[in-house]
Structures are given as C-alpha cells and as structure tokens.
Amino acid sequence: MGIVFHHEEITVEENRQRNEYLRRYYNPETGEGNDTGDRWILRLPDAPIPVQYIPKALFENEIMAQRLVECGSLAVYAERYGHDKIIATDEAGRNPKLADGGDATEELWREWIRVRIRYDFEFWAFSFVRIKDKLGAEDIPFRLNRPQRRILGMLEDMRTAGKPIRLILLKARQWGGSTLVQIYMAWIQLVHCRNWNSVICAHLKESAANIKGMYSKLLANYPDWLLDGEKPKFKPFERMANTSVIAGRECRVTIGSAESQESVRGIDAAMAHLSEVAFWRNSRMKSPEQVMRSICGSIMLLPCSMVVMESTANGTGSYFHQECERAKRGESDKQFAFVPWFEIEMYTLPIDDYDSFIGSLTDYERMLWHRGATLEAIAWYRQKRKEYARHADMMAEYPSDDIEAFCYSGERVFDPTLVEKLRRCCCPPRFEGDIHGKESTGKQALQEIELETRPEGPLKIWEYPAKECEMRDRYLAVVDIGGRSDTSDYSVIAVFDRYWMLDGGPAEVVAQWRGHIDHDLLAWKSAQIAAYYQNALLVIESNTLETEHDDSEHSAYILDTLSRYYNNLYARQSPPDSIGQKPPSRWGFHMNRATKALVIDAQKNALREGSYIEHDTQACYEHDVYERKPNGSYGAMEGHHDDILITRCIGNYICSRELPSASSKGHRSERIVNESSI
C-alpha cells in the first residue's frame, strides 16, 4: 500500500517529520531525490545540467558515462575521445568544433542525452513529454508525482530484471495512473524497442482514443534528433482505421474497446494497456475473459513485453475484482498495485490548532494515521466526508485500502482499526507442507503421523507442539468444511494454543490446513493434526455434512467412525424428543442463526480485548471483507471467502468458555464435551 509509518503516538512532531519526508526535494531533470533505484553523481561544469544523479546501472553499463566521470567536463571528453569528429579548437584547446561548424560539446551533450534516457525514465518524461495540467489549461512537463514514482518502481524492477512486465493496478481518482502506464509504454517504443507493437483497449473506444491522444501530444512535441532525425508522428498503417505506426520506429499502436473485441483480435502485439477493466461488460455473447484472450494470447513472455490492467473499482464479483484477488494471493502472472487516497498530494488541508485536531480524531481517522496519512490529509478527508450521507460512499470514492475501493451494500462487521492491529503479528510460517499417517482413513490414519515438507502446501505451522504435555486441552483444533472442487469454498483446520490463557494471556493460532478434499478424508486429516498437537480438542463444524444428506446419516457415520479412534471429539446436545427425555448428543458444532451470532460476538470481543494472536494474513483479510447484509444476515462480500474466519470465530468462542487445565496425561478422559459442559 505504499509508505506505512509504524508509530503508535500521534504527535505534531511526528506529523512534521512525515511531511518533511513526503515533501523532500525531488528534481527529475538532475535526478536528485529520485528513489527508484541507486544513483551516482556526475559533475560536468560546462554541461547544461552541471550536476546529475545518474542511475547506477547507467554508469556500470555505459563506457560513455565512465569516461565522463573520468574527464569531469564535456570539453575534456570531446578533446580526449572525439578526435575523429573535431577539426579545430581555440588557442587554449577549448571549444572544439565539428566539420560542419557546429559545437562539438553540443553534439556530445545530445549523444549523452540519448544514452541517459535509456536508463532514466523520469528524466526522459520530464524533458521530452508534455501533458495537460489537471489544475489548469496549460501543457506542462510530465513530472511524476509520488504515486506514479512508486508504480514506476514496480515496472522498472521487472524491466531491469529482464522479466515480462505484468501489473494489475487498482486506481483511486485523479493521480495519473493511466497517464503513467501509457507514457511508460511510449518510452519502451521510442527509446528501447523497434517493431514493438502495442494495443490500447478500454471499456469504450472513445476512452482508448483519449489515451492514444496523450501519445499523439507526446509525438508532436518530441525532438527530431532523438529519433535519428526523422519527424516523429503517427502514420496510417495499411488503411487500418484503428492502427497507426510511429515513423522512424516502425512500432504500431492499435486502439480498440471491450465492446468490439474483433477490432483487436489477432493483433501482433508485444504490449497491452487494458483500461477501466472493471467496466468491461459481461454478457452471453462476450465476456472480459474473451477480450483478454483475444488481446493477450499472442503476447510473448519476453523482456520488455508488457500487460497492464488498470481500473477504478466497480463493485465486487466482477472479472477485474477476481483478477485483483488472484494477484494479491500470488496466483496471477501480474503484480498487484493500489494507491490509497492519502498518497495523492493534492488531498490535504491546513490545520490551525494541531492539539485540538489530534484530540478530536475518531477511531477511523486514527487508523488512517497508522496507515501513513498526515494530519493535513486527515483534515481533508474529514471535510470531504461531509459531502456524503454514508461513509461507505466516501470510502468507495476515496478508498484507504483495496477493500474500501470495491464498494458494497453491506457494513463491515469487524472494526478495521482492530483488524489492523491483528495484522501486526502476521508472519511467514516456519513450516509449509502437509501431514500424513500410515493410512488416509481408519485406525492406521492416526499411526506414524509425520510432516511432509512441500512449498506452498496446504498445512502451515507457525509454532510446533510443545515437547512436554503438561496440561489437558492445551490445543484446540477447529474445522470448517468446504467443498470438494477447486472453485468451491475451502476446507480449513485451525489449531489454537491456549497455554497463555491460564495467566490471562491470549490464545494463539499456531497451525492451519486449507484446501479442497473429500469430506471423509478431511475428518481424518483433522484428527491427524489434532493428534499431532497433543490430542487437541477437535471441533468440527458439521453443517455441511448434515445438509448434504437429509437424514444426516452420512455425517453421523463419518463422525461416529472417527470418534471410535479419536477420543477427544467435541459434541453438542440435541433437543429432546419429549419432555423429560434426556437430550441425545451429536458430534460437531452446529452453526445456526443463534450460534452464528454468538461466535461472531466472541470474535468481536477477541479483537477488542486482544485475546488472540493471528499469524495468517488471509485471516485478517477475511475479517476485512466480512459484512452484515441488508437483510441482517452475515457473510463475506461477493467474490470472497470466510472459511478461515469461521474457524477463528468458533475457536475463540470455545476458548472464551473453557480453559485448559493441568494434567499429567496427554489426553482427556472419555467424557463427552458439549455446550452444557462449556
């Protein structure tokens, strides 16, 4: 999300330091203050720019840069290394001239510029690109703002590593994300690659044409000498209405829209700028996925090849939303990028009384501070918020994170400031892989239990079980049953360590299994994990098992079979069939409207009191997207999951009602554990 300042205390001095950091000197012409890569200083007193901070790679790779550093001036360089072009100098040996009477140092300067622009996008953009000023009618040099420089850093990291450039950009309003992407693609075509074709595709053809218009303005102001003397301009290509070719570079630029994918089908492209993807229509005849295949199917995985999807948000569940989620999970070929509103420089207001303002901050505004906003930015947000009847509408227009960006109709269940605190303990697991017994099911499934290391395996372990078994039910294993197919909900097994609860401390999530598996195999897998963690109390959320078969015989069979071999299984009491009859017990935790409210309240309390430690970032994310629907029900936002969260809710509910106790044995007695005993 960009810069995050980890300071608990909100003070005027800390705010001053933030502003000082954000307003630090930046000059794209000299390179001073540039933070996209290491820079080395080059001093040339007789050059138009006497002091330059050039990219380290430029000095390391270009002999001209090394010689300029050695010579210390253009004149000395021209005299020492330009003898074949120089025919005369003055009496002191200075002011070298070329055969055509031109100034040798001027020609040398141009040669140096042609070298520098291959490594320094910001210098090239400021020196040779003009864009419309958002705050006025004049065209101005393209000086990158802070968000643009951050995104440029991501693009350059991929390019300089020789990797294909792939990015999905979730935009807030008015910071120039589309401008950066298109100008960066122009840089590759004008400076780096010949015969390197590109496609611009937006939700409407007019929008794509507007993006291309930036390119046309760039070419109209571009110096001839940067392109070997040929006048840079768009020329028609083979009478194709949607395609132009750049004179002198032989790079084609094609525009199209998601409304008419035939205009871009089969294009020989190396780069694609896909704009406002969230607004691409999805119908029976065409879908965003089909448009993507039409455009990107032929783009090779080559250095400097480029695919950027960018859009403002347009609700959840869309193709763009799903692709953002895939990228955040690391399942996509694209890196995910988001720019919050408080990184955009224009969104600030002055403050008269800082102490009074700090004292009036709400919990949400304090969360903005901890995420990196200055007090001046928060003052702007507070004033702008008055324009909206609902905070949800403000969050959708000016999102502070990618979750707020996707507007939704419900309301968050969990306080985002508390979720942010929960996130602070998240860390990579100590182990990734899976767990196995001698067999997959039956008695032998609980014998010879061992871990199998496997990168990105379904089982993550943050803390291994204690070597000594000093208490009964120290560990609690909770199971939420999902679907079997890869597109269905996940099944999750979460293990809680309750050791520190005896001294008033928090419970801690120490392990988690998440994947798709047949339900009978899941039951045995959960027993293996529970057995590995000192015969943990095993709580299986049984709704899925019970609703798959009307008579619940299948679920009863699975859990009854499991209970024969695993003796620490959670059970609940069913309502009696008649007055005076002892209620029978049934295995598993049943989630209904009443118990769901109980476990959600328990989870809210756990966050508020800080009574549990979370290590999984996805669990925190599921807290963020869990909402109360307009009809009063609870669930994840469309296109999201809540399977991990449900294990936390059930686990913290049970943790809050029964503490582990000291025991010399490694397992419980043969009594049934149920709601009555808790």
Distinct helical segment count:
23
Oligomer: single chain
Relative helix content: 25-40%
**What's the CATH class of the largest domain, please?**
Alpha Beta
Helical/strand content category:
alpha/beta
Taking pLDDT < 50 over at least 5 consecutive residues as the criterion, the unreliable ranges are 576-580, 664-678
Count of distinct structural domains: 4
Distance between the termini: 42 Å
CATH architecture of the largest domain: 3-Layer(aba) Sandwich
- Average the pLDDT over all residues and give the rounded result: 85
Question: How is the largest sheet built, in terms of strand order?
Answer: 9-10-11-8-12-13-7-14
Short description:
This is Terminase large subunit gp17-like C-terminal domain-containing protein. The protein is α/β, with parallel strands linked by helices and 678 residues long. The protein folds into 4 domains: 1-26 and 340-406, no CATH class; 32-116, no CATH class; 130-339, P-loop containing nucleotide triphosphate hydrolases (Rossmann fold), CATH 3.40.50.300; 474-677, 2-Layer Sandwich (Nucleotidyltransferase, domain 5), CATH 3.30.420.
